[in-house]
Amino acid sequence: MDRLPTNKVPSGSPTPDEKGFNVPLIRDNEIIEQPAVQTTLTQRYTEEAVKIISGKKDKPFFIYLAHTFPHVPMFASPDFKGKSRGGIYGDAVEEIDWSVGRIMDALKEQGIAENTLVIFTSDNGPWLTQGDQGGSAGLLRDGKGSTWEGGMRVPGIMWMPGKISPRITFEAANAMDIFPTVLALAGSADGMPDFDGTDLSGLLFRDEKLPADRPFFYYRGRDLFACRIGQWKLHFKTQTGYGPGGSKSHTPPALYNLATDPSEERDVSAAHSDVIAKISESVDTHRKSIVEVPSQMK
After folding, report:
1. Which residue in 41, 167, 263, 281 has the most C-beta neighbors within 10 A?
2. Rounded to whole angstroms, what are the CA distances from 179 to 175, 185, 292?
3. CA dihedral in degrees (176, 180, 281, 169; nearest 10)?
4. 268 lies in a domain?
5. Is residue 93 part of a domain?
6. Cα dist. 121→63, 66, 69 in Å?
């Protein structure tokens, strides 16, 4: 992030310089404000989403709302700053909570809540190097950047009143499942190529179980670090999210039972060679299926 010459405060400070970051606010391809007034962003994003909902109530629409916070530098509007017990991080989260509520209210006001799927989730766990401004993974191990559960496991909340019954499920899913799920709901999945993700419609609307033998592959960059099937997670390599030190290879791989040890503290590989063999076979099949494609970054 570009800093202006006047900015002497670290990004992870609880009191970042509101005017110290030279970031633009862009609508379509036009810069409408630079530097952006970051204390206003959560409310402005929310207003834009509500405006779209009000204008599209009779037509299909898709909104992807990726809030700037709680990424550092952290800001909250005057309506929320200093209002939580969690400092500026808590203030930012409470403002996001308000934002979600305002958007859901807009769906109800327009009479389309029962016909709109709302998904709330995150892309990674807490950024532990940022201290109080980075969040917490609770009992899960490590954070953002790592392939431990603290880096990868995030909340997933889906809401569609009258269609999804209120409940908690421990079925494992991932962000790649969102695309095929949305396509299925829109009636557009027929004729589409195979996806890495799984349609979650059965789980959401009929409380059906997902395939118990479905593997999840944990990558760090181009390297496959771990694989999970059901309650079992096998680590071939481990590395802390950020900080000194490189990756550590495990021979044999380290095995954890996430049902009884979500903190990944007890390696039980010595007692479960059959589980290691099953997961390793899935990894071999996965690797054989990968086709190299040209880099889109060059």
Report:
1. 41
2. 8, 10, 22
3. 70
4. no
5. yes
6. 14, 10, 13
DSSP codes of every residue in the chain: --B-TT--S-TT-SS--TT-B---EEETTEEEESS--GGGHHHHHHHHHHHHHHHSTTS--------STTSSSP---TTTTT-SSSHHHHHHHHHHHHHHHHHHHHHHHTT-GGG--EEEE-SS---GGGGGGS---TTS-S-TTSSSHHHH---EEEE-TTTS-S--------GGGHHHHHHHHTT--TTPPP-SS---HHHHHH-PPPPTT-EEEEEETTEEEEEEETTEEEEEEE--SSSS---EEEEEEEEEETTT-TT-----GGG-HHHHHHHHHHHHHHHHH------TT-
Question: Which H, E and C letters describe 140-188, residue by residue?
Answer: CCCCCCCCCHHHHCCCEEEECCCCCCCCCCCCCCCHHHHHHHHHHHCCC
Q: Average per-residue pLDDT in the chain?
A: 93
Structure tokens at 248: 């550590």
Instruction: Please state, in angstroms and rounded to a whole number, the distance separating the CA atoms of residues 191 and 165.
Output: 30
Q: Is the pTM of the predicted complex or chain greater than 0.85?
A: yes
pLDDT tens per residue across span 235-284: 999 999 987 789 999 999 999 999 999 999 999 999 999 999 999 999 99
More confident residue, 220 or 12: 220
> pLDDT band at residue 191, thresholds of 50, 70 and 90?
confident
In angstroms, rounded to a whole number, what is the distance separating the alpha carbons of residues 73 and 196?
Answer: 34
Is the pLDDT confidence value at 1 over 70?
no
Domain range enclosing 108 = 1-116
Report if residue 298 sits inside a domain: no
In a domain, 108, yes or no: yes
CA 235/CA 218 separation, integer angstroms: 9
| CA nearest to 43, candidates 94, 1, 117, 84 | 94
Q: Does pLDDT of 8 surpass 80?
A: no
